[in-house]
Amino acid sequence: MDRVKTPLAAAFLRLFTVQASWNYDRMVGVGMGIAEEPLLRSLRNGTEDGPAYRAAVARGAQFFNAHPYLCGLAVGAIARAERDGVPPEQIERLRDALIGPLGSLGDRLFWVGWLPLLSTAAIVAITLGAGWEAIAAFLVIYNIGHVTLRWWALSAGWNAGSDVVAALRHPLVQRSLRLVLPAMALVSGFCLPLAARWLAQPLPRGPALGMLGVAVVGLVLLRWQPRLVTGLRLGLAAVGVALVAGWAWR
Amino acid sequence: MTTAALVLLVWGTLVGVDLVSVPQMMIARPLVAGTIAGTLVGDIETGLRIGVVFELFQFEILPIGAVRYPEYGPATVAAVAAAHWSGGPLALGIGVGVGLIVGLLGGLSLHWLRTANARAVRAATAGLESGDVRALERVHLGGMLRDAGRACAVTATGLAVARLVSLLDVARWSPAALVLAAAAAGGAALASGGTGLPRLVGRGPNLKWLAAGLAAGVAVAWIA
Asked: Model's pTM, two decimal places?
């Protein structure tokens, strides 16, 4: 599947596809197995696929779920444990134990922190006059964090093996959480009024006020009936009503 | 228009694959998908505006576990095409309307993909359970190819809808409809972002930072 000779580098590259076969049965499990496989090749019996290797590959592709950027931590730790001859039951317990913490940490660090922080910062830059530079900066800065985390996760897991839980308590991870979440909250708050002004700018005064009216009514509906009213439904309804009103008004 | 549509089709497919399969570098974010789509059709202003609108809609979504959500990446590409072909930045509302429909379709297609991948896993269970690497690779590559096909189909459908909508020539028969639809789209996006972002912040200690940012944002919006 790949020609990369170094197993750790091959596993790292494969981790970028970890969700490619995401499904309701094993979730990210098959992708985990794919990423883990290069690290298990030392279990092969010469050129033949020995029973230890096949059993480890089969275990590697079982059910797993975690944040995709942190799957490497589990891949590295489990592959190391397999190589060190840790009993299968202990490996399965390690695998189960990592699901919750890796999901929770990754979601907070990236989906709730780093991603909205940079995305709202890019919106702020655009509303203040930036163009494609804001998008380029977003992509570069986001992916420096993304790729660094993926590599750190894999190498930390590989180095720690069964003691991987200690890596999750790394001071840098904890400090990042303490910084990124308040920063995200601050920039998110800053972004909304500027986005409102920027979206209203090309509109005449009446429709601009109407836009703010839709925003206020929409906010109330989205908070009051969150199961019934979603952003998508609200958007479709608002645009539909506006088009009919505009047609009637002509 | 044919060349532009083909370029957008390729871009929308890459955007769709990036969301889940590979490499999750966030070209699937509407801000990126929209701006680059705008650049590709030579209308960066429309791309930026549609990108910001869909980015605000995107804040309502937290992609955790098996949660089902609309897919706004290829939808943003189709939205930019619809707005550009219907009159540029002023046709923002038309673009957003098309994009939301495509986003809904994209969400359904993601559910189909996950179900199809699960079927492929079940069909290969014997190989997977025996540690057969070839079976593992087949399931994984199959998932990737299915996702590429899915993203391509969603984008193609979106571009077809965008083209059909542009043929209606809304700008000519009702300029007022364009303005009202743009206002409605902007308002709905702000409501969505205004709901999603505070939800991400939560009710904990970071709420004060959100309030501080909001106050500063209002002040800057007033002054600037």
From this structure: 0.94
